[in-house]
Specification:
By secondary structure, this protein is an alpha+beta fold. The chain has six helices and ten strands. The protein has a single domain, classed as 4'-phosphopantetheinyl transferase domain (Ribosomal Protein L22, Chain A, Alpha-Beta Complex).
């Protein structure tokens, strides 16, 4: 089971992550201790996680994404990544040509502006979720991985096998979720 918390009306500076993790774990927000570790070099930057010295070795994994005044937090027993994008206007074809695989860029460029932007946002959220789950961000491995055929399982170089699915959150939001151990069940909750 993966829990996805949606928080609307998020103001700058609000610590949504501690709020959500505290609610999920049933502890005060002040007791949440998050640390970072890079999946590539092991340094104290990169993917955040609950400090195992405070929350135990079996502490859940999580991922946070914000767009506009909406935040989403995914919480699971194994590595997970989430991305959400509120409707915005970008030059989808130009960005796709620069950052996506040739096949993905061709798909985006072959559509009218509105449909091309919708597909671009779908592919972008999938890549962001995958990079967050794997702990490598939008690395070359993620950018070179074709996510147009998803949802489904895919290999990400030396970073393992991942399941990526689209999430329907409504309100013009585009969202995707990636998880190492598959995505059999997702529960969307509002905070």
């Amino acid at each position: 089971m993966i829990d996805v918390y949606r928080v609307d009306g998020v103001e700058p500076g609000r610590d949504v992550l501690s709020e959500v993790l505290a609610r999920h774990l049933g502890v005060p927000a002040a007791g949440i201790v998050v640390v970072r570790r890079c999946a590539i070099c092991g340094g104290q930057h990169g993917k955040p996680f609950l400090d195992p010295r405070v929350h135990g070795q079996d502490a859940p994994q999580f991922s946070l994404s914000r767009s506009g005044d909406v935040a989403v937090v995914a919480i699971a027993a194994s590595p997970v990544g989430i991305d959400v994008e509120a409707g915005r206007s970008v030059d989808a074809a130009a960005i796709a040509a620069h950052l996506f695989t040739a096949d993905e860029a061709k798909l985006v460029a072959g559509l009218d502006r509105g449909a091309g932007l919708a597909l671009f946002m779908r592919l972008w959220t999938r890549k962001e979720a995958l990079g967050k789950a794997a702990g490598c961000g939008l690395s070359d491995d993620v950018l070179r991985t074709d996510v147009s055929g998803l949802p489904g399982r895919l290999e990400l170089g030396g970073l393992g096998s991942w399941t990526v699915v689209d999430l329907e959150l409504g309100d013009g939001l585009t969202a995707a979720l990636a998880a190492r151990d598959g995505v059999e069940s997702v529960r969307v909750l509002r905070l």
